[in-house]
Design goal:
Rossmann fold; two-stranded antiparallel sheet; disordered N terminus; 4-stranded parallel β-sheet; alpha/beta
């Protein structure tokens, strides 16, 4: 079996999603160097971090955090690109798992009842074949032992990409495009809303506005990366 595995590795080499170098047998998705040098924010240790502050006065929420800093050309941008456009669902599950191991010890996150990925419109889902936020949510769920519900939120309108839009245009683009299924089934629950990259927060704000039809709901936000710093 070892020889077969080695032969397969020669034909289909396992490549680090961060730097493109070959992975050792003990490495998964990222090489040890890229994993060690991930630009972590540690926002989950600070209730008044930049993600939480972004939503002050906009929508009510329990807490917000992002795992990594997203900058043009850095390893995180490459990872997000692999996840969203190259079919690397394993990148999402891996990063979600890494973040979940941190959040399961964070008081404002480890009391959550359910993890909710920001949904794609069905047309975009069929084009891509999967929802990148759902892959991140699955990784979080595995590490935190909290279930994922991908049907709780529905995106009712296919919107244009948010890339290169102004903050106001982003808000207009996603305003009132989400609905909640069976809201009274989730009365009083604490939810972690999951997305890939947060910039202006317009999409997440629209999701929270929709989720607030649930009586006594509590909402926290966990994103894999932030591009707003």
């Amino acid at each position: 079996m070892i020889f077969i595995s080695d032969f397969i590795s020669l034909i289909f080499p396992r490549i680090c999603a961060g730097c493109g170098n070959s992975l050792w047998k003990t490495e998964e998705v990222l090489c040890h160097f890229c994993l060690y040098h991930l630009p972590k924010t540690n926002f989950h240790h600070d209730l008044e971090n930049p993600v939480t502050r972004l939503f002050w006065g906009r929508v009510p929420m329990e807490a917000g955090a992002a795992f990594l800093y997203f900058n043009k050309g850095n390893s995180v941008q490459r990872l997000v690109h692999q996840l969203k456009y190259k079919g690397r669902k394993d990148v999402g599950i891996f990063l979600g798992g890494q973040y979940g191991h941190a959040l399961k010890y964070a008081p404002h996150f480890n009391t959550a009842d359910v993890i909710v990925p920001v949904p794609l419109h069905k047309k975009r889902y069929l084009q891509r074949g999967y929802n990148q936020s759902e892959q991140l949510a699955l990784g979080l769920a595995g590490a935190m032992n909290i279930p994922v519900n991908r049907h709780l939120l529905t995106r009712t309108k296919a919107t244009e990409t948010q890339t290169r839009k102004s903050r106001f245009s982003r808000y207009q683009n996603v305003n009132e495009i989400f609905t909640v299924n069976a809201p009274h089934d989730w009365k009083g629950k604490h939810m972690i809303l999951v997305d890939d990259v947060i910039t202006t927060g317009a999409t997440l704000e629209s999701c929270i506005q929709a989720l607030n039809v649930i009586p006594d709901v509590k909402i926290s936000i966990a994103c894999i990366a932030t591009a707003m710093i």
